[in-house]
Amino acid sequence: MKISREFKVGLVSIIAMVLLYWGFSFLKGQDVFENKKVLYAVYDRVEGLTPAKAILLNGYKIGTVDKVYFHPDGSGNLVVVLNITSDFDIPKNSVAAIQSTDLLGDKAINLTLGKSPEFAQSGDTLKSNIELSLTEEVNKQVAPLKNKVEKLFGSMDTVLFLLTGFLDDDSKDGFEATLKSLRRSFTHLESTMSSLDRTVTTSQNDLVGTFANLNKITTNLEENSEELSGIFSNLNSLSDSLSKVRFKETFESLNKTLLVAESVLSKIDSGDGSMALLVNDPELYNNLESASEQLDLLLLDIKYNPKRYIKLFGGRKDYDEEELLKQEKKDAAKREELKD
């Protein structure tokens, strides 16, 4: 069978078109003959991510970006189609993060595996994230430093303005006077410190003795710690006992007693009753004293002149008042001698 020229030309054209399509897809990072799993991720911005960019897992390429298009819901979010050519199972809660791969800002998608027991199937949507680029990270770190530098320049500007104010003659004179005053103050301070140093040197022995005495005191306290504990325990018991005393009832009773005593003293002072008459009437006191003396004489008379009151045979001689007193003194002296 003879093959015509037209058939040969058509066959060559078809093969050429297939090769062209395969080559174009290969250049885009897509292999027509590879098995692939299609996943999706939604971003609010893609930071320059374009089709054919690599999809990395732990730094290893497992696929490429197929296409990028706006979400059909009109929100302005972007849908990225991920062609996964690896047979590695990806958990459903994995995160597809856009990141920079070099200093020039080339983008790729880095997969961070989740811990879900379920694996993503073709057509599932992964969680998305956008990592800061190197430039953005540097800007983030430098921004606080930049703010501090700006504040520093502002402070320096203020200081320079104040220094400019010191450049006039009046300010210079005042500034020099201030420096001289400071110099004198430091001189006096140095002299004071020298005097203090000499005082400490002179009193060094006294200070040593003082610290030695303090050491002895602390040693004695430590040696008598048991006795001190007993004293504090007794004080504690005393405080407990005092806390149980009914001070209120005691003071109320004492107050009542003082009121009664005050009332009695008031009556005595005002002349009411026998006690008041005894205290306030001198004549009554003198009468009582005279009656007491007469009673003493009567008792002595009964003692030494009993026959006047009891009639007995052969009684003793009678004594008058003066003799009675003398005889009583003699008898008192004899009693004292017997006691000795």
Task: Give structural notes.
The chain has 340 residues and is of the alpha/beta class. Among the domains are: 33 residues; 96 residues; 30 residues; 58 residues. It is built from 9 helices and 7 strands. The protein has a 7-stranded mixed β-barrel with strand order 1-4-3-2-6-5-7. Strand 5 and strand 6 form a beta hairpin. The longest helix has 34 residues. The termini are far apart. The mean pLDDT is 77.
Fraction in helix: 55-70%
Counted by DSSP, the helix tally is 9
Quickly give the structural class: alpha/beta
Written as H for each helix and E for each strand, in order along the chain, the element string is: HEEEEEEEHHHHHHHH
| Integer average pLDDT | 77
Q: What gyration radius follows from the Cα positions, in whole Å? A: 62 Å
Tell me how many strands there are.
7
Unreliably modeled segments: none
The largest beta-sheet arranges its strands as 1-4-3-2-6-5-7
Molecular shape: elongated
How far apart the termini lie comes to: 182 Å
Strand content: 5-15%
Outline the biggest β-sheet: 7 strands, mixed, barrel
Describe the structure concisely.
This protein has 340 residues and is an alpha/beta fold. 60% of the residues lie in helices and 14% in strands.
Topology:
Blueprint: H1 5-27, E1 37-43, E2 54-57, E3 60-70, E4 78-84, E5 95-100, E6 107-112, E7 125-130, H2 134-165, H3 169-202, H4 204-223, H5 225-244, H6 247-270, H7 273-280, H8 282-304, H9 321-339
Parallel strand pairs: 1-7, 2-6, 5-7
Antiparallel strand pairs: 1-4, 2-3, 3-4, 5-6
